[in-house]
């Protein structure tokens, strides 16, 4: 009886949520599509008109969105590892954020391949030993980048597949599987994200380095992901400030090494980010409306809704 009442309540919440989100998407899709198109056209024009300046914009935008998606994956992984019930009712939000990971990964490839000369040519390899030169060799650089992106996409696919199975089953079997996949992801993420931060961002300025750089980037990405989840649920202004602050932080890491200390933001810097964020919002809202907003078969849903610890049976 209790389970049936819970399912009825979930169905009612899903119906209300789906109606609200459908109306929201209809009003926002046209505007987001226009911004995406304008951002893409402006970026393409900038690549040919001022490549040395323009490539920093796509790098900033794609790395920002990758961090947001990966931060959402970390939130999900920690939820499944620790069996935290408080986020069970909100799980659809970070899951929907993962929708953009394939797009961000696909866009990062041309940025690193075609923009590599403009982004990293200012630094010289003179004086570096043979092992460093071998590590920085373009072919090896591209192989490593594809390896990082493929690892993240593989785990995102696994998260999505197990989440689908959980929606169709009752019990803890999928929870245990989720915990195992989450543990493996956190280990792989720690290694690949650290290397990506060093090679894609810190390499912009080879005269400066920090062993804590990856930790700093990870904390910013995780905080931005948590802010995005919160903003999506209750639309708090402080979360918007955190998201903008993280992007400004990345701007200060990427633009000055390429353009100098007086790197003011202009059309070439704003357009890629605006287009990519709009595309993220468009895909995020579509994924959010495609599935039930309340994961009815989640064994920790009661704890998440009522804020009381419970032992799933």
Could you explain the architecture of this structure?
The chain has 313 residues and is mostly helical. The chain has one domain. Helix content is 78%, strand content 0%. The protein is built from 13 helices and no strands. The longest helix has 48 residues.
What labels would you give this structure?
single chain; 313 residues; mainly alpha; 13 helices; 0% strand; globular
Structural class: mainly alpha
* Global shape: globular
Radius of gyration: 21 Å
**Count of structural domains:** 1
- The topology string of helices and strands comes to HHHHHHHHHHHHH
* Poorly predicted regions: 1-26
Q: Fraction of residues in helices?
A: over 70%
Number of distinct beta strands:
0
Q: Span between N and C termini?
A: 15 Å
Instruction: List the total number of helices.
Output: 13
Main sheet overview: none
Strand content: under 5%
Q: Mean pLDDT, rounded to whole units? A: 76
Short summary:
The protein is mostly helical and 313 residues long.
């Amino acid at each position: 009886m209790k389970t049936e009442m819970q399912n009825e309540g979930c169905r009612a919440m899903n119906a209300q949520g789906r109606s609200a989100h459908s109306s929201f998407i209809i009003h926002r899709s046209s505007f987001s599509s226009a911004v995406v198109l304008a951002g893409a056209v402006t970026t393409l024009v900038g690549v040919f008109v001022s490549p040395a300046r323009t490539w920093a914009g796509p790098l900033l935008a794609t790395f920002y969105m990758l961090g947001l998606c990966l931060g959402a994956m970390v939130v999900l992984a920690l939820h499944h590892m620790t069996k935290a019930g408080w986020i069970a009712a909100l799980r659809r939000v970070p899951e929907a954020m993962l929708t953009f990971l394939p797009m961000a990964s696909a866009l990062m490839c041309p940025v690193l391949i075609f923009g590599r000369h403009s982004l990293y040519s200012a630094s010289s390899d003179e004086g570096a030993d043979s092992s460093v030169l071998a590590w920085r060799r373009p072919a090896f650089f591209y192989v490593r980048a594809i390896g990082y992106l493929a690892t993240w996409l593989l785990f995102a696919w696994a998260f999505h597949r197990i989440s689908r199975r959980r929606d169709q089953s009752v019990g803890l079997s999928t929870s245990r599987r989720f915990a195992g996949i989450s543990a493996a992801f956190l280990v792989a993420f720690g290694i690949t994200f650290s290397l990506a931060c060093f090679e894609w961002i810190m390499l912009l300025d080879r005269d400066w380095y920090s062993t804590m750089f990856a930790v700093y980037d990870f904390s910013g990405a995780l905080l931005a992901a948590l802010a995005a989840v919160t903003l999506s649920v209750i639309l708090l202004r402080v979360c918007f400030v955190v998201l903008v602050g993280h992007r400004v932080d990345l701007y200060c890491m990427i633009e000055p090494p390429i353009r100098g200390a007086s790197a003011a933001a202009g059309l070439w810097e704003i357009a890629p980010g605006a287009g990519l964020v709009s595309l993220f919002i468009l895909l995020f809202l579509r994924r959010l409306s495609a599935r039930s907003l309340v994961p009815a078969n989640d064994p920790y849903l009661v704890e998440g809704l009522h804020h009381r610890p419970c032992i799933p049976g």
